[in-house]
């Protein structure tokens, strides 16, 4: 921001906070008031615009009309009234594509392979009232620019204004994968909850929903040819995602610039499949899941604690796919083949976390197969994963896996496999050393469920395995390139914040996620430095994140306050070293 | 429960969980199915019933019709269908008062002095279909019995049934004060949010709302003759409780068996009063609140850490009433006189926590007064508190204070003063040693805000001062009589769970409170032992608390799930030592 000292002298106001989130890579602002004309209009100067671009323009125009967000200062902007009264009026924002740009729909662009999506845009808002312009070389870039434009405006007695014109933005994300993971298996979320979340994600330019749709506890997705999985494994007949629901969700996401990476976690985290196919699952009923914890290891979920200093709870129910079995491989290949067809995304995850190999040591059926085929367990696992990934690749998909598939098993994976690092942020370097592409999903920074207590009975003194709560301030300090060599930096695709839902449902979805998850949205869009070159830091970010929370609230998201309103209205006054 | 082995053999079902919360002091259940007749009716056999009793009956009848809660078992009760089809039909519940009982309104009874309210009741539901009966010696007792009756019923394809008839309950609370504290000053809550909370409180027989209505950050309550406090100290003109709002809230609470203890915290936590009366407040602008923390103690909030092993954050803004000043005393007495008139409760709290005495050492005005009057600071404080309490007592009120007024200052308090113990559960014994009555509000068990991160900028590694999160399991283990002598047990009035709202708003009110706060509701209603004499324990309680959460959800409270639904439907299967 330039000249802001002059501005504040002029307006007699406290320092203005431009509520942009994520903050653009390059940003220049002025000191003039500018307001929207009563007939303000967003013009789409794109011949035959895709329907989802026209819809995005309509949404944006609507947000600008209905946000009615007052400035977060004590007088809520009243001191700007004279300046606003005399301010030039902005009559239009004109959107155009640079010549030669392909005119794809937003959804087509957003579901391209990671690294090939174009999201950059240029936004100019003159102080004079002359038309503002938004240009990009893709419809997706125009969508990102609209999200920025929406965040420029405040309400004062019905006038929609800024006091920082002219505004000039040249923007492009630092990383393509800016994600949020939702687990819909521990507890169920309605389609409307997912859509509401997608809306909020798009406002902060997030690009990726990681949909952890199934797990040991329930199988809520209907898959053609495999309908018995949901019929017997969903929590109820009303807690199911039909193929139409899936189509609805991926379309809704795509139109908002969000790609949906579905995860069918395997071969662990699959106990619920035993409801439809008891023969496919080892250890499902063999013994109570918790016996292992009481000193008699049998056939149970075994957490991979080797690289963690802390124990975390085993999780019921037990049961894992008998991956060595040809029947199970056929089933899995067929299932993934159908799943791949349901999702337009280029990426599909086969999960692969927390595999308890002891289960198979005691599983007579698996041991018989291994003996018959002359394979050891890891060879069988590698064959299973290769078959699974083979069917994905045959459909043009890139497979994604949790880090254990790379770090803890001898599985042959193709070089383009995307690896999600979750156990610890420290593990990224080991994945990079194996030359795989990385999505950061570290539990020590990005797990939104940590710190809410232990849900497993029955120890009253127990806390969550990943205590403490991961604050937005902590997430915001994440360095995507930590411990990587210069040569390895190109392996980083981005990262995501994650909500495991053992203790979440639609009841607390919004408050546990927002505005916290916006922190990584900025980490992975803006990168290491603020416009102007200073490093990102939480003290600078806080007033802007307040803005995000309050704007989200105006749009129907139950985002929580980060501080007492007293602090939100007095930027800097509640910092420890202010 | 008796004969349940026979029952399960008969119905071919898993063990039934009677979803009563708090569990009655005495309870006998049978093994028969019983369903409500289509024309089931609650008859009020009370001549000239008070309006709030009739309203309670209507609410109860409505809940029974609309709860539609299925049993929390895998088949959701389908295995009970034959038994339910052939079950006798219950046509009526008859409510009556024991002869000679005074016919007060529920509200009148609920706002009587603590220890004199009658809440006991007797409920009988025969297995035959003959009328169920609910008797009590007060309208408040009838209300408590209705809450129990509502919890007996489940839905199966439109039938409302139990499989545990006959049911016989004789019940009375262990402690009269079963509370919840809401802070409406750090962030604002609408009247509708408070009413929704009162509803949920009444369902688990909580008796006391502790309304921490004002604090340093805002003064949202309009008080006749002192309108400038809210006018200048509320966050906005729409974030105000008018006298009509207060009347609405206390009436709504009273009708639901809940007394409202308002707290006007003083002389600390009063910075916002400086907006209307700058002369009344010391240290308000003298220095940034956080200077103290950086090693230059001036005139700031000083936490009382002497009895804690941990530091907790100072909180902005600074500023405390100049209690030594006659003008401030007059103001305070006048204010409390009006506040006392607004609340029908017998108890009013004057707070008194976290007073920073250093502030006054550096306050020239206070020092001048002390010199003039020949008092020391503690003498002046005692005079101030006595004046404040004197005006309350003149209106028939019992004063309540935070523990520091007893443990850290030389304040003369009347023997009937109620003392809230918050810093640590260990402090109860010291308060009891001074022979004051106790309300347990310990941060180490009952603070609902702990573990959600530090809201003060700007240390990204900081966590909440009272980490970790206080789980329901932890709260549930609270022993109200720990470290007290036999003779001191009569000093315990009960306890409360508390929500300080630095990081809360209506957005997360329900999920941060429910069902967690129900844990203390049972601790203080049921006491140390389950019906039958076994000690209360979380493993037994969990399935019943699931029931509370799901029934609350059916009634519009955004209560969170305590576990994956897989666990909720399989009682015991997710315990570590099951």
From TrEMBL, chains A, B:
<dbReference type="Pfam" id="PF14845">
    <property type="entry name" value="Glycohydro_20b2"/>
</dbReference>
<keyword id="KW-0325">Glycoprotein</keyword>
<keyword id="KW-0378">Hydrolase</keyword>
<protein>
    <recommendedName>
        <fullName>Beta-hexosaminidase</fullName>
        <ecNumber>3.2.1.52</ecNumber>
    </recommendedName>
</protein>
<dbReference type="InterPro" id="IPR017853">
    <property type="entry name" value="GH"/>
</dbReference>
<feature type="domain" description="Beta-hexosaminidase eukaryotic type N-terminal">
    <location>
        <begin position="20"/>
        <end position="152"/>
    </location>
</feature>
<feature type="signal peptide">
    <location>
        <begin position="1"/>
        <end position="19"/>
    </location>
</feature>
<dbReference type="GO" id="GO:0004563">
    <property type="term" value="F:beta-N-acetylhexosaminidase activity"/>
</dbReference>
<dbReference type="InterPro" id="IPR029019">
    <property type="entry name" value="HEX_eukaryotic_N"/>
</dbReference>
<dbReference type="InterPro" id="IPR029018">
    <property type="entry name" value="Hex-like_dom2"/>
</dbReference>
<dbReference type="Pfam" id="PF00728">
    <property type="entry name" value="Glyco_hydro_20"/>
</dbReference>
<feature type="active site" description="Proton donor">
    <location>
        <position position="354"/>
    </location>
</feature>
<feature type="domain" description="Glycoside hydrolase family 20 catalytic">
    <location>
        <begin position="175"/>
        <end position="527"/>
    </location>
</feature>
<keyword id="KW-0732">Signal</keyword>
<dbReference type="GO" id="GO:0030203">
    <property type="term" value="P:glycosaminoglycan metabolic process"/>
</dbReference>
<dbReference type="GO" id="GO:0005975">
    <property type="term" value="P:carbohydrate metabolic process"/>
</dbReference>
<dbReference type="InterPro" id="IPR025705">
    <property type="entry name" value="Beta_hexosaminidase_sua/sub"/>
</dbReference>
<dbReference type="GO" id="GO:0016020">
    <property type="term" value="C:membrane"/>
</dbReference>
<dbReference type="InterPro" id="IPR015883">
    <property type="entry name" value="Glyco_hydro_20_cat"/>
</dbReference>
<comment type="similarity">
    <text>Belongs to the glycosyl hydrolase 20 family.</text>
</comment>
<keyword id="KW-0326">Glycosidase</keyword>
